[in-house]
């Protein structure tokens, strides 16, 4: 049998059945913004250093993240033409006006960033619950999206985008920037990294809260074997070969977080594609951020908000 012909094709965002928001979320949005706990903003905070430490005890299949332990993770919510809210995925704060995510939220086969009414999209900062208002939550909006010039909607090559936010992001204990790896930074097969996201335990856990799944870095050959268009130069392979846990649609763009020997958390990957989180028979494909940190930093300078770390 010719194995190649039975290789799975990566499934992209537009092929997923996106979960629409529950009605009560819409009702909550209509309520006036009550800030229960106003913290004094800090002007400079270090990157990759949460005040609440992430849980690093390994739980196969994922678990609820400690609230506030991934303070750079932003929930990206789209408004559809028929006025429904959809969780598009996650982004990561890189600067006071900059959020990193995947390009596929904004451009895919049949739609481009020009078709979307981004004024109605929302960025939830300091957020833990999907539907419930969190005391430290802030809502921000999109001013502009910069898609990597090499992005290919078919192969998902260069699936990277920067969101320039409308309002400045204020740092506090619940909202902080992430660290980027520099271009010389290398990960190792077997490193255990973590994927926080609002979809990552859709089948096993509580999908109302921010969850995290530990994802071991796998050898490129595992993904090259599973996916006919795995791009080993710029993508990395992580997760499980044998069906424990994969990421779900609402995790797209979520950061794959790895801890450096100095205790600082940095984003090594961006969740870009997989097959089916309910089957979870396959590893996930991530953009390898070491390969993109130069482009990200350069683009941040051009946009007027240079990376500060
Ligand atoms: C995009 O990727 C597809 C699939 O790999 C390829 O056939 C196509 O030539 C690529 N397009 C560009 C503009 O590189």
From TrEMBL:
Please report a single Pfam family linked to this protein. Trypsin
Query: Taxonomically, which superkingdom?
Result: Eukaryota
A molecular function (GO) held by this record is: serine-type endopeptidase activity
- What are the record keywords, sorted? Disulfide bond, Signal
Q: Does the keyword Disulfide bond apply?
A: yes
Q: One biological process GO term for this chain? A: proteolysis
Leader sequence residues:
1-37
Q: What is the protein name for this chain?
A: Peptidase S1 domain-containing protein
Q: Which organism is it from?
A: Potamilus streckersoni
